[in-house]
Design goal:
By secondary structure, this protein is α/β, with parallel strands linked by helices. Helix content is 37%, strand content 21%. The chain has a single domain, classed as Rossmann fold. It is globular and about 35 Å long.
């Protein structure tokens, strides 16, 4: 069974592109949302296996969204993404509840699957 994925990014063109790419690479895209508040609601409604979460969002940022998702019982794993490098965020990535980080330039189904195959932070 394909892993279901929620894509959270404020750029509609990116959401569409990454949705098509990841669908072609074996993921089931459960939904796409443009902001953090919608992401938390969509996680509750759609119950995806994983969330691809942009760090820079309008309203609450990806780090806060990841924290809120982590509070949901049996919530999905979260992978943060950004056009910026991981080093730009310092310890915020490693201190977050996210499974990991992938720069948008390196996003692929294989890279995402490999990251999601690693043990969860609380495992």
């Amino acid at each position: 069974m394909a892993m279901s994925l929620l894509i959270v990014d404020d750029h509609a063109a990116f959401r569409g592109f990454i949705s098509q790419m990841l669908s072609a690479e074996g993921f089931t895209v459960a939904g796409e949302v443009p902001d953090g508040e919608s992401a938390v609601a969509a996680v509750r409604d759609l119950q995806p296996d994983a969330v691809l979460l942009d760090v820079q969002l309008p309203g609450i940022d990806g780090f806060e969204v990841a924290r809120r998702i982590a509070e949901i019982e049996h919530g999905p794993r979260v992978v943060l993404t950004s056009m910026r490098a991981a080093s730009d965020y310092g310890r915020r990535i490693t201190d977050s509840s996210a499974t990991g980080f992938l720069p948008k330039q390196q996003l692929s189904g294989a890279a995402l699957a490999a990251l999601l195959a690693s043990p969860a932070p609380c495992d």
